Each structure stands twice: as structure tokens, then as C-alpha cells.
Amino acid sequence: MNLKKQFISLHLYNFLFSLRITDAVWVVFLLDRGFSLAQVGIAEGVFHLVSFVCEIPSGMAADLLGRKRTLIAAGLCGSASAVFMAFSTDFGGICLSMAFQALMYNLCSGTQEALTYDSLKAAGLQEQYLKRNAWLLGLSQTSAAISCALGGLAAALGFFRAYAVSALLSAVCGVTAMTLTEPLVTQSQRQRAERPFSGLGLRLKEHVILSVRFLREHPRTACKIFSGAAAGVPIYLTFMYLQQHLLNSGLPSVFLGGALLLVRFAGTAGVAVGGKLKARLFPCVILCAVCSGIGTVLAGFGWWIPALLGGMLAQFMDSIIALRLDASLNDDFPSDQRATLVSVDSMVYSLLMIAASPLTGAVGDALGASRALWLLGGCLVAAAPVFGAFYQFLLRKKRNV
């Protein structure tokens, strides 16, 4: 395997995958076409429902059929989502588009990380994963920030042409995946490459048993999975609520796009720092989680300057947590179940989002966005030491066995 060529393709795929110019204005597009806010909320619900249901099956597909094939399929689903949205004439078409968009993210989630780690492992360079993944994650966040900035261009292009561009970008993303090389580091992966559909039912049953057994026998790894998901939920909701909260706190609407770009770039800076940080995993994650919670609390302030700085602090710290936990988890995971187990991480996140989103939304409606942000930040500050103590308990228990 040519590792340099492999990572050029991975970086290009990662950039194109996150470059979705319609993401910042899709709600505006739907409202302009006559759909209601309630329908927009239902469409978002369809996205999360499909994401939850398909997360682990998509990871299994990557492990059993090949990571390269799965990434190609992700690009095709992205194109299908944009096409269904562009040609939709009723609400059913909108929901179908959201379902394909969720499936696109499912197919990439876990698959790209697994392919990256095993590409390095095939070359005996898996210790470089933290640094390599930092570049990939930083590029992804930069691309997402550029997508926010291009929201105005998408609005100027109009509904149909903006989604046509989005479909084209996803198609190019899928073509880029075709240039990747499938890493083969175990005997099962070599057999899969030769006969990908041979004995699939039996392999699927065995795969499920091995994955469940791994999580049951490695409670510290399960604890890391839950911790990463629990830390990520407040950050996503903070970014979502911050958009309107900044305007309500005095930020002129003309500067909203620039403010959100600063939050995104704070996340990119966190990735850059996390990739070079030499601190041990446990104190690093606990400290960053507490600081992220403090940032979320600051984001709830009634003046836009501390609110913006709080959102930036939370995003910065969360990027460090995500990067360090991802590297540690991939060191724990066996190669044959890697994509599936990474998908478990994403599924736990979706479960927590299903509970946290309506709860904080109800708090926001009843008491205001500030108190919803304070609730999120306060829970994270309080929970981080508790889960840290539980993790240490599991560590001591293992040493005493």
C-alpha cells in the first residue's frame, strides 16, 4: 500500500464529505417553499430515527463487506439525498431525502476511522493515528466552517441549483473513495476481500456475538464510549441554541455568520492542540470536559461577547476530548470489529441526543435559551468528576483481578 497516496485520497474524501453548502440554509429553503416549522422538525426527526436504526448495521457492513465499498456507498447516498431534495414536490420527498442523508453519515461514521487506523496498522505505524486523525478531523471542521460561509452562495444559487451542486460534490466524493486501497491486516479481512458475500449470514451472526462479547469483557472501553458521547451532546446543542441566542444577546445579524465561523475554527484549533498534547488520557479528558461545561455555561450569558467566547471554549475543549478518546478507543478495538464498535459510539450519542434535545428544548421554551445552556453546562461540569471516579474504579478493579 502506498501510504502517501492513501492519505491524499482520505484527506480529499474527508474534505468533500464535509463540504455541504446547503446545510446552513436548508431550513430557510423549506420554509420558502411553503413547508411549516413543524414539518421541518419532523424531517429532522426522520434524520435522527434513521441514523439511530442504521448506525450499527452500517458499521457491520463496513467490517463485513469492506470499508472502501462502504465509503463509496456513502458518497452515493449523499448524491441521492440531494437529488431527492431537489426534485421533491411533497413532504414525503423531503423525508426521503433526510433518510438518505442520515444513511450517508451512518456509512461514513466509524468506517473512515477504521480504514485510517488499519491503513497505518498494515504499515506498522498505528502509533501515528492520533496525529493523522487530528489532520483529518481538523480538515473536516474547516470544511464544515467553509460550508457555513458558503450558505449565502447557496441561497443566491437558489433551491434547485444549490442541491444540484451538493449532489455533484457527493458524487465526486464517492469517486474519490474508489481511489482508496482496502487495508488487510487480519486473515478475515483477506478472505473478505476475495469473497465479500460468501457465508454472509453466518459471518454476520459471529460478528454480532464477538462485538457484544468485546464490550461486555471491556467495561473501561464501554465507559470511554459513553463519556465521549455524553461530552459531545452539550456541544452540538450549544452550537444549535447559540445561533438565536447570540442575536437575542445583542449581536447584529450581519455578524452571525462570522461568529459561527469563529466557533467552528475554535474546534479546529482544539484538534491542532489535541494532536500535540502529551497529557495522559484520564486527566486530559476530565479537565477538558469540565472546561467545556464551563464554556457552555458562559454561552448562556445575556451579552453576546461572553456567550460567543463560551461557545468557542466549549468547542475547543470538545475537539480535544473527541480526538483523544477516538485514538484511545481505536487502540482498544480489534481490527475485525473496528467499524462496528466505532458505530456503537455514534449510536450512544444518538440515544443521548434523543433524550437531551427535547428536554433542553422544553427548558428553552419555558425558561429561555440561557437557562437551557446553563443546564447543559452544569450537568457536564457535575458529571465529569463522577464518571471519572467510576472509570478509576474500573481501572483499580482490573488491576486487582
What brief labels describe this structure?
401 residues, mainly alpha, Growth Hormone, Chain: A, 17 helices, 84% helix, globular, MFS_trans_sf, membrane, MFS transporter, transmembrane
Notes on the structure:
By secondary structure, the protein is mainly α. It folds into 2 domains: 198 residues, MFS general substrate transporter like domains (Growth Hormone, Chain: A, Up-down Bundle); 203 residues, MFS general substrate transporter like domains (Growth Hormone, Chain: A, Up-down Bundle), CATH 1.20.1250. The chain is built from 17 helices and no strands. Helix 7 packs antiparallel against helix 15. The longest helix has 32 residues. The chain is globular and about 55 Å long. The mean pLDDT is 81. This is MFS transporter. Keywords: Membrane, Transmembrane, Transmembrane helix.
Brief summary:
This protein is mainly α. Helices cover 84% and strands 0% of the residues.
For CATH, the homologous superfamily of the largest domain is named as: MFS general substrate transporter like domains
pLDDT < 50 runs, ≥5 residues: none
Estimate the helix proportion, in percent. over 70%
How is the biggest beta sheet arranged? none
Question: Termini distance?
Answer: 41 Å
- Computed CA radius of gyration, to the nearest angstrom: 21 Å
Number of helices: 17
Give the strand content. Answer: under 5%
What structural category do the secondary elements indicate? mainly alpha
Q: What is the CATH C level class of the largest domain, in words?
A: Mainly Alpha
List SSEs in N-to-C order.
Answer: HHHHHHHHHHHHHHHHH
Shape descriptor: globular
Q: Which second-level CATH architecture of the largest domain applies?
A: Up-down Bundle
CATH topology of the largest domain: Growth Hormone, Chain: A
**Overall structural domain count:** 2
Main location: membrane
Transmembrane segments: 12-31, 71-96, 134-157, 163-185, 222-242, 254-274, 281-301, 372-395
Protein name: MFS transporter
Subcellular location: Cell membrane
